[in-house]
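note to self — DONT lose this again. spent like an hour looking for the file last time. sequence + predicted structure for the chain T wanted, 71 res
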Amino acid sequence: TLAAAASTDYATAILSCRKMQAQSELTPEQRTVINDTMTAMNNQMNAAAQKGDPKALKAVEEVRKRWRSPN
């Protein structure tokens, strides 16, 4: 997830966070970090998409398509 975030692989980072959220054994601190990371990546993706970044636009569509089933 961190590698995906660092490389602006928005969809992978967001969907990986989504998948991790489903893990019941996470501590409250881990949940906070996952949520904060997902929010930050989502904000970056949307900002890039608004500027017309083709990679971000593609990521928006992928996240929308895979949100309910991120596997």
